[in-house]
Design brief:
2 helices, four-stranded antiparallel β-sheet, Transcriptional Co-activator pc4, Chain A
């Protein structure tokens, strides 16, 4: 996660939309063409935290997608509680190349699941 507390302003007419919110975090995705932005914003004078996916076009301009959510201040404590519970269940994220190794190990474990001896899969071949 990279820190991105700076604000960017709306682009010129006809260009990509600007991100005028106070950005708290930017979470790049693996493909480099999508990222998740966490921002402080307000709507009609009411503050909220917005979490939205953004994508880059072929020219490198960023656009918001419809995939997102906003969290009201009164909901924040419960959302944080749920995220902490999920993090405790998932455990620490593997670092760097360890993520791919862990995915390959899980895939190998799935392939190694024994099949019941009473099942005949030859009819599907």
């Amino acid at each position: 996660m990279r820190d991105a507390t700076n604000q960017s302003r709306p682009g010129p007419s006809g260009g990509p939309p600007g991100d005028s919110r106070q950005r708290l975090a930017t979470l790049p995705r693996a493909d480099g063409r999508e990222e998740v932005r966490v921002c402080l914003d307000e709507f009609n004078g009411y503050p909220y935290i917005g979490i939205r996916a953004w994508f880059a076009d072929d020219k490198g301009n960023w656009y918001p997608t419809k995939k997102g959510i906003w969290i009201r201040p009164r909901e924040l404590a419960e959302v944080l509680k749920a995220l902490k519970a999920g993090a405790a269940i998932l455990g620490p994220a593997p670092a760097g190349g360890e993520k791919q190794k862990a995915q390959r190990r899980r895939a190998a474990e799935i392939r190694e699941v024994p099949v019941s001896s009473g099942t005949d899969f030859d009819e599907f071949n």
